[in-house]
## 1
Amino acid sequence: MTDFTLYDKQSAPAESTALLESSISALGRIPNLYAVMAEAPGLLEGYQRLHQLFLDSSFDDEETTVVWQAINVEHECGYCVPAHTAIAKSMKVDDAITDALRNETPLPTAKLEALRDFTLSVVRSRGNVNDEAVQAFLDAGFTKRHVLEVVLGAAQKVMSNYTNHLANTPIDKPFQRFEWHKVK
């Protein structure tokens, strides 16, 4: 496997320095994902921007977690599942939701299950979701805006999940206690 560099502020390409500094300001550190992405400043900037846009979407914290983790688990991202477990905890998302997502077991509500089902339909069909699946999602209490915001979340997760697969990004120390492996 190709070795990717984990950059810091001193070693990163100049175009990534401010992006890494903003991570330190916001998070107190540079997550390993960002350290890898710094190799390609446009990727890092795009990811950080999409992350904020998705956080600012019309989904609440539980729904945001469902979209992120459904995709992380589907993509078998051994970095993002633990990272988003920690993020869900910081967002005060019920552990029952996180556990169901990590273990691919039923979610506590039909509405959250409909969100996971629709998100997985989008990912698995690469956006070619049939009308019945869209209608089922709308009937569960979501809107057309939510349909498109799932696409936003999927775009963000493709960037991180694929980067982590290619770079074999090491799990950050704060996330290691949430290590995850897909049950086969």
## 2
Amino acid sequence: MNPIQFLLGIQIKRTKSVQERGFTLIELLVAMIIAVLVITPLLGFMINILNTDRQEQAKASSEQEIQTALDYISRDLQQAVYIYDATGIDAIKNQLPSDTDRVPVLVFWKREFIGQVLTAADSNKDDTFVYSLVAYYLIKNTDSTWSTNTARIARWQIRDGVKASSGGVDCAGYTNTKYISSTYCPSSGFAPFNLEGVGTIEQKMNSWTRLGSYTTTTTNPDGTKTTQTTTVTPGSPIVLVDYIDQTITGAPSATCSSGSKVAPASFNTIDTGNMTSFYACVDRVNTTAQVFLRGNALARLQSINLSYADSKKTYFPAANIRVQGRGFLFTK
């Protein structure tokens, strides 16, 4: 056997011996300690990145939703012909959908465009306008469909029907007027405002009442008549945006540089009436409103400690917009 074969034989035997012996306990412990020292900081770094990304996503979502809601309200207000101030909302609040969990913040009449509904002489369709009453609410309740820890904004509307110049159909509760089709009947409970008679526009608009009931008379087979009274229930507000700040104590105050603040003070007996996350400053005379809105991104991340604080201000995105309606009402 030559020297090279002898050395290779020794090395092979030594390798087999190491493989059969395995790692010692001390070697395993050292390896585990090294792994922990390396992996733990990496895991902490990754968790921190994920948490930061989650927080930024929550902030971005709230900011985007707040701005989208304000844009929607702005487009609505641009069609306004009359905006109720706090005194006006107090005057008609019993005519609006009411509950102990909601506050009407913005209520106005608008001239709403409806396209391609009237038959013209050339068999094409003409556009028209109808009056609508719109109300925006701040709501806080335990409806599990939405966030139960924060408030939300909802929109309610009733609209006049499209009247027919000839022919037409009857709509329940509005038998004295014909409408072009059942699709364009007035909303449930709609009643037009009345500018006739003596008084200011404010007095006349503040005396508006919705349709609460109507009667129908039918002729029986024996010739007698039966009269039935139907109570009209207005529809419920539809949620526009969720995750609105619910903070009462310690939240930024509601201030108006011009106009009067809405919601009315008469709603201060309920929680939503004391929130400042959604309010408006209304200049009734100039048909102008400045709307303030504040969200709560913190509620997207946790279920406790959700109230506003200056140290957590970045989680409560706020925005405001000033809008003047494009129409006006006149009375003698």
## 3
Amino acid sequence: MIEPMLDPFDPDSFIVRAQAHILDIEPRIGRTLELPMALNLAQLHEVLQAAFGWTDSHLHQFNIGGLIYGAPEFDEDGLFDSRIFEATEVRMIDLHFPYDPGENPVTILYEYDFGDNWRHLLRLERVQRQEGAKYPRCIAATRSGPPEDVGGTSGYTDFLEAWLDPSHDEHKAMHRWVGRKFHPELCNLDDINKAIAKAMRSSKGGYRFRHARPS
């Protein structure tokens, strides 16, 4: 069966492929994500949380060309240095992608947990949509995301030293803390995509926390 050709002038014929990794960690912890053009930044936050195994327990922001996007209600007192623009109002289709694939990609800095200061660099390019594929999805992943509240990149280095060394005083404590399922070098693509799908259902087109029922 011959698949219908996609219209190169139709925005629905394209998706965004995002190469995302956490800065200042080697070997790299990265994800390759494919996103629908209608996805907004609040939904992208949910995708990133699911893809890297974060639990959305801290504040975040997107920095695009020096403008900050996120959830403005978290800065009602105006304590942040920059104005926070509403993340749901910017979609992938609103970004200015070059027509020449050889040109520089769109770059976004995604910051999560201002205490641990996890900075993720996203390089975005527009590519043809695959007929029959469901988006968003993760198509490649390297290494597990760090545990929440581990203390940022330096804290993660200390954690790994204890986690990997059976003779370390904190070895057993670190294993108990993160649980048996954690391994720094492993991640399961199917599990990541199930987490992304669940996050998309819960987000209802925006942020999950805005739809959470009060306890």
